[in-house]
Design a protein that fits this description.
The complex is a heterodimer of chains A (244) and B (93). By secondary structure, chain A is an all-alpha fold. Chain A is built from six helices and two strands. In chain A, strands 1-2 form a two-stranded antiparallel ribbon. In chain A, a hairpin with a 2-residue loop joins strand 1 and strand 2. Chain B has one domain. Chain B has 93 residues and is an all-alpha fold. In chain B, 83% of the residues lie in helices and 0% in strands. The chains are: A mainly alpha (244), B mainly alpha (93).
Chain lengths: 244, 93
């Protein structure tokens, strides 16, 4: 199979213009375009549907309100009353990941969440933000987060590094989960699409049926991963308030 | 007092109304693959951090192989700790 037909070709970054600042390549790529589309879709959808502010919501307004309620409920369930002020942050992240995944489901559209650097940047924002939040709330006492009470003192030299590693692994597990799910799903779709062409006679219809089912599953995963990203963000915010 | 009884009654009515109105939180059924994936990322992430710290320690303290060995083991234990916490969180729900 030629390289141009590879199922991984869809993840290729294509720069539209060459711009370099210093040694950094900041070209506008298909990934950037995809992100811009995502942000525009979110902004237009949320502002236009909620604009009439009707008491009896239209269908579209109902969708927006449903999303709002979903995250508001999530925050109040996991963080409690403290969570209210983090709503804009969690909602932005949730919508960006969700709509980004959905935009990626459109044929010929680039899926930016299938690149680990994008998801890792998102996870780093969450991780650094939550760490700062922990220090703001607890000051130097935040370090007791790594100290497990009720353990014999000679165990602490062992347990504290383990706790620190466990804490540092958060952004990695958060980003790898989202990125790998999207990468695997989209590659699988393309591989099965290859079977449709390669199989003889009309047996190609079989993988075609499978692709239809897989596309449905991918949309479910796209939603589920955005949900997981949001709920873990909430849990981490909660940890920054309640150390144990 | 009559008022207190009334308030109590009203409270009960509000509670029952609330319990009817709010649907029980839908539990998301997860596929086995999704579950396995979640667990494996936890272990891998902790191992990556452990090995990373080990390599950095070795580089700056010149304690080649020992930093890597020790922090690899720490990373593995941290991975299992992560898995344990995820499991406990799932069981709570």
């Amino acid at each position: 199979m030629a390289a141009k037909d590879s199922p991984l070709k869809q993840f290729e970054i294509i720069p539209y213009s060459k711009t370099e600042v210093g040694n950094y390549d900041i070209s506008f790529t298909n990934s950037s375009l995809s992100m811009v589309i995502t942000v525009v879709v979110i902004t237009l959808f949320l502002t236009l549907t909620v604009n009439p502010r009707s008491l009896v919501p239209t269908r579209m307004q109902l969708i927006s309100e449903l999303m709002y309620n979903f995250i508001a409920q999530l925050l109040s369930d996991t963080v409690g009353d403290n969570g209210k002020k983090y709503f804009p942050f969690v909602f932005s992240i949730f919508m960006f990941v969700l709509i980004g995944n959905m935009v990626g489901m459109v044929p010929y559209q680039f899926t930016f969440t299938s690149h680990i650097i994008v998801t890792f940047a998102l996870a780093s924002v969450v991780f650094i933000g939550v760490t700062i939040l922990g220090f703001v709330n607890h000051g130097i006492k935040f370090f007791t987060f790594f100290y497990i009470p009720g353990v014999p003192f000679y165990m602490h030299p062992l347990l504290i590094p383990i706790e620190v590693i466990s804490y540092l692994s958060r952004p990695i597990s958060l980003s790898v989960r989202l990125f790998a799910n999207m990468l695997a799903g989209h590659t699988l779709l393309k591989v099965f699409a290859g079977f449709v062409v390669a199989m003889p006679f009309f047996t190609g219809a079989l993988p075609l049926v499978f692709i239809v089912a897989l596309t449905g599953l991918e949309i479910l995963i796209a939603f589920l991963q955005a949900y997981v990203f949001a709920i873990l963000t909430c849990l981490y915010i909660n940890d920054a308030y309640h150390l144990h | 007092m009559v008022d207190e009884d009334k308030i109590k009654e009203l409270k009960e009515r509000i509670e029952t109304a609330k319990s009817i109105n709010t649907p029980p939180s839908q539990k998301k059924k997860e596929s086995g693959a999704g579950f396995g994936f979640k667990i494996s990322t936890e272990i891998i992430a902790a191992l990556v951090v452990g090995v990373g710290i080990g390599l950095i320690v070795d580089k700056y303290l010149g304690t080649k192989p020992f930093g890597l060995i020790i922090f690899f083991i720490f990373g593995a234990i941290a991975g299992f700790l992560n898995v344990y916490r995820v499991m406990r969180r799932i069981e709570k729900q």
